[in-house]
Amino acid sequence: MVAMSEKVTVKLRRQTWEVKPGKTARDAIKELQLNPQSYLIVRNGELVTDDTILEPGDEIELIAAISGGAAHALS
Predict the structure, then answer these.
(1) What's the pTM value of the predicted model, to 2 decimals?
(2) Tens digit of pLDDT per residue, the chain (75 long)?
(3) Three-class SS string for 7-65?
(4) Domains (range + CATH), the chain
(5) Would 8 disulfide with which of 13, 20, 52, 54, CB 3.0-4.6 Å?
């Protein structure tokens, strides 16, 4: 059994998961059946890229990347 400190905690809104360290943030997000392109990834309070390798004890927060609107609406 793996100790809590040897896991990575992933949070999205009110949901929390634990994943094993040593994989990329992208792979961890895919493992949770989420689309990595839909989220900004914050590790231990700092924005990181999806190819960042997750370390034991990391706390990951996923923030939905929101886009929309039309360019002509601004003119």
Answers:
(1) 0.79
(2) 444 469 999 999 999 999 999 999 999 999 999 999 999 999 999 999 999 999 999 999 999 988 766 655 554
(3) CEEEEECCEEEEECCCCEHHHHHHHCCCCHHHEEEEECCEEECCCCECCCCCEEEEEEC
(4) 4-66 (3.10.20.30)
(5) 54
